[in-house]
Design goal:
By secondary structure, this protein is mostly helical. The chain has nine helices and no strands. It is globular and about 50 Å long. The chain starts with a helix and ends in a 10-residue tail after the last helix.
Length: 185
């Protein structure tokens, strides 16, 4: 909960990836309140009232997974909407004067997107979601110690990270009012 809140304020991309990881963790615990409490809440050195707040937050996420029919796989609509917002920003930056640097960064990745799409077996999602899925897959490969899978997308991840990082930074600046996305239009 605290980590998610901090990541949401600091970096939208890290927040999305963190929530995806948490979805998988909650699934691994079979969305069981008892398992969630014993594994994720009880070990924390915080007052009992805080533990109850943390447990309630995890249980809300588990409830959303159930409500959205994503007990086994998939990502919460909340994160997919955020990716949609980031993709809309991406589309804007591809046209707007404020996006000049972003366009150069993205241009290095663009030729790799068809290969990524083929690896992820999904033609119906945005370029931005493709990037997030590839980053998450790379993270899972690293966690599992799967060198073969990680090697398959390692070069592309080196191209994705700067694009997603810059997109997230621009999103944060715009959200905080530090950047006018329509300047020069």
């Amino acid at each position: 909960m605290d980590i998610a809140q901090a990541k949401r304020k600091e970096n939208i991309a890290e927040y999305i990836l963190y929530l995806w990881q948490l979805e998988d963790l909650l699934r691994a615990l079979q969305l069981s309140p008892e398992a969630i409490y014993s594994q994720l809440v009880a070990p924390r050195d915080v007052p009992q009232q805080r533990k109850e707040e943390i447990l309630a937050w995890y249980l809300d996420m588990a409830s959303l997974l159930r409500k959205e029919g994503k007990e086994q796989s998939g990502h919460l609509d909340h994160t997919l909407h955020l990716i949609g917002d980031l993709h809309n920003l991406h589309l804007h930056l591809m046209q707007a004067p404020v996006g000049e640097h972003y366009r150069h960064t993205f241009a290095r990745l663009a030729p790799e997107l068809p290969k990524l799409r083929a690896l992820l077996h999904d033609d119906g999602i945005s370029d931005t979601e493709i990037c997030f899925r590839a980053l998450y897959a790379a993270m899972l490969y690293r966690i599992r110690g799967d060198g073969k899978g990680s090697a398959a997308i390692a070069d592309t991840v080196e191209l994705i990270s700067p694009v997603v990082g810059e997109l997230a930074a621009i999103y944060g600046k715009a959200e905080r009012g530090e950047l006018d996305l329509f300047e020069g239009m």
